[in-house]
Amino acid sequence: xxxxxxxxxxxxxxxxxxxxxxxGIMVDDLTERLQSALGPDEVxxxxxxxxxxxxxxxTGKQGHQALVLPVSVQELKSVAGIYPDLIKRGRHxxxxxxxxxxxxxxxxxxxxxxxxxxxxxxxARLLISPHDxxxxxxxxxxxxxxxxxxxxxxxxxxxxxxxxxxVNIVLNGLPExxxxxxxxxxxxxxxxxxxxxxxxxxxxxxx
Length: 207
Fold this sequence. Notes:
Layout: E1 2-3, E2 21-22, E3 25-26, H1 27-37, E4 42-49, E5 54-60, E6 63-68, H2 73-92, H3 98-110, H4 112-115, E7 125-129, E8 143-145, E9 151-153, H5 154-157, E10 159-162, H6 166-172, H7 196-201
Parallel strand pairs: 4-7, 7-10
Antiparallel strand pairs: 1-6, 2-3, 4-5, 5-6, 8-9
Helix pairs in contact: 1-6, 2-3
């Protein structure tokens, strides 16, 4: 993973002589003010896609870093663009698991490099600002796989909120975590695991 741009997360190429203004706030000052606005378990992630590279800026109480993501723009746009349709296919046909491979790849491209920075605490609240094709990506459904092969959705590891740009946090404050009144539950291979359909039907929201 190539890293850089530590002082300027919103510029995808070499740092300019003068840092740009965003709504009248200098970018380096914005990073400091953003860190002050975040809670101890909150991390802001801003993705930006140029013609040549995909960049992620991560800011939390543990620090700030910007990374060039380990994927080509063409590959990222291809996988992220088709992923929502693959999920729909899997919903209608549980035997169709193509979405899982795409989900794991997207996790490896978009989330794992950020986890490797050490800035994301356990059980963090991720405040994600997507860009371009990532704006229609259901981040919550991205899958990680541990060393023993256990699959975990991103939303099982972290609280995930999709936000606008960082300057809105500085100017308007953090939004309250969203309370969900509906949830989707999946029954894997119900023909083989005959009780999963009943178990899925018993899922209820609490709180």
